[in-house]
């Protein structure tokens, strides 16, 4: 290359590297542009509705009271790390709650010790509402619906009205981290499969709380081997970091405390909305034993099978990745030995997916329109708005003696989750049959630029 050529190209290289402030503004450009392109009247109406809903929520929260006990536990874990105390010996709040997360999570909680409880209550509540908006955005991106200019309207509505969904309500009430984990996972899954770093966020989420590790299994069984290994290696990195900083706590967690279910809570109480909890209440026992284990194993195999089947049915199934991800998420919550009601935060992408199917159904000509998805969406929405498990008598030992008529509301989430997996299986089966494709045949593995982000562009015209 000549000197003249180098001189001519030098200014180009300088302009390709904007200063740091410009890069920050560039990161904000997409949401600002989306808000600017959104239709004014619907966006203004959505903002007013969301504001009214949040003000009502704040009023209800003030009179009901919110303990935010999990936030207090997280802060105590961070304090134990900062002071060099025994992490798993701490007991805080009037319920004597212990630390139950891996040491890596406790290390991340250290910054919470820099602020008082009052400041944390406001900051974490506001942060969770913002994360709810982000989860809505990622859910719309995963599903590829609605059209791009209407998505800010949907995000604002979900952020404002979503606080009344019971899993969101209890996440805010306890100061939980479920929304952080869900956003990490969905952000990873909506990135193109060709990204070498795909899987990192899932590995970090699994390092904080083990259940997200099932999404690495989902990546593996859907043929995205590299992303699955990236997730696994990232998780291993969180373990090694915890072991380097907190060796005693790491040894204690992985050899003892992880297997002590009494530290987490009772299996039989209505707070636990897993398959195991539902079986325990049905059998009126605190230890449902082998039957619950077999039921959980059956749901795990069935759920992951449907998730992989949906993902690999992309040539025939609209929103195949969304169906696969939602099936994997529901399976993860169902099979965990203890899944508190706020763990069902995955109701947000599930409801977005069902709403998209209902909208597509409504857009069809009346002569061929079938009323299937709107009732399914309405029933699912009602389940997560019902607060059913809190309505049945459950104080003291009443969880052990629930009558037959109380079993449904007491286990409304596992029942809804199993029904969702069944609906997903029927959906995949119907689409394959309609296309004349064999039920068990998988198409050739898609290229590295697949994933929800790329498929969204291909499916967007049909989704509208």
Automatic annotation (TrEMBL):
It comes from the Bacteria. It is a multi-pass membrane protein. GO terms for molecular function: hexosyltransferase activity. Coiled coil: none annotated. It is found in: Cell membrane. The keyword Transmembrane helix applies. Keywords: Cell membrane, Membrane, Transferase, Transmembrane, Transmembrane helix. The chain crosses the membrane at residues 43-64, 114-138, 150-165, 201-221, 227-246, 291-310, 376-392, 404-426. Residues 454-464 have a biased composition (Low complexity). The keyword Transmembrane applies. InterPro entries: GT87. GO terms for cellular component: plasma membrane. Residues 1-16 have a biased composition (Basic and acidic residues). Residues 1-22, 439-464 are annotated as: Disordered. Belongs to the glycosyltransferase 87 family. This is Glycosyltransferase 87 family protein.
């Amino acid at each position: 290359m000549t000197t003249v050529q180098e001189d001519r190209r030098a200014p180009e290289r300088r302009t390709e590297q904007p200063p740091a402030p410009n890069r920050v503004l560039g990161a904000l450009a997409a949401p600002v542009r989306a808000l600017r392109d959104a239709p004014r009247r619907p966006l203004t109406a959505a903002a007013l509705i969301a504001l009214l809903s949040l003000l009502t929520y704040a009023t209800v929260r003030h009179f009901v009271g919110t303990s935010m006990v999990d936030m207090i536990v997280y802060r105590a874990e961070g304090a134990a790390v900062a002071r060099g105390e025994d992490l798993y010996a701490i007991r805080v709040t009037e319920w004597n709650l212990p630390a139950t997360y891996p040491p890596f999570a406790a290390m991340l909680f250290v910054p919470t010790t820099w602020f008082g409880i009052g400041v944390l209550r406001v900051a974490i509540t506001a942060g969770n509402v913002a994360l709810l908006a982000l989860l809505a955005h990622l859910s719309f991106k995963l599903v590829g619906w609605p059209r791009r200019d209407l998505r800010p309207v949907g995000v604002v509505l979900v952020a404002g009205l979503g606080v009344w969904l019971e899993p969101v309500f209890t996440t805010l009430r306890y100061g939980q981290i479920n929304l952080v984990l869900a956003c990490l996972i969905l952000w990873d899954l909506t990135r193109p499969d060709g990204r070498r770093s795909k899987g990192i966020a899932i590995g970090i989420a699994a390092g904080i709380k083990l259940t997200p590790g099932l999404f690495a299994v989902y990546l593996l069984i859907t043929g995205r081997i590299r992303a699955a290994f990236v997730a696994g290696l990232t998780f291993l990195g969180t373990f090694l970091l915890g072991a380097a900083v907190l060796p005693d706590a790491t040894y204690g967690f992985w050899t003892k405390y992880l297997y002590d279910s009494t530290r987490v809570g009772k299996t039989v109480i209505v707070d636990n909305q897993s398959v195991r909890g539902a079986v325990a209440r049905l059998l009126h026992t605190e230890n449902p034993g082998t039957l619950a284990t077999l039921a959980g194993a059956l749901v795990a195999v069935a759920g992951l099978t449907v998730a992989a089947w949906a993902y690999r049915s992309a040539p025939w199934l609209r929103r195949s990745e969304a169906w696969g991800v939602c099936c994997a998420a529901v399976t993860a919550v169902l099979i965990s030995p203890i899944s508190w009601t706020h763990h069902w935060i995955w109701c947000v992408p599930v409801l977005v997916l069902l709403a998209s199917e209902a909208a597509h159904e409504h857009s069809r000509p009346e002569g061929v329109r079938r009323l299937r998805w709107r009732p399914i969406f309405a029933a699912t929405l009602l389940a997560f708005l019902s607060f059913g498990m809190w309505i049945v008598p459950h104080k003291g030992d009443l969880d052990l003696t629930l009558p037959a008529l109380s079993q449904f509301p007491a286990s409304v989430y596992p029942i809804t989750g199993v029904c969702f997996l069944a609906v997903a299986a029927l959906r995949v089966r119907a689409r394959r049959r309609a296309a004349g494709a064999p039920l068990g045949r998988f198409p050739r593995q898609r290229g590295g630029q697949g994933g929800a982000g790329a498929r969204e562009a291909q499916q967007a015209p049909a989704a509208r």
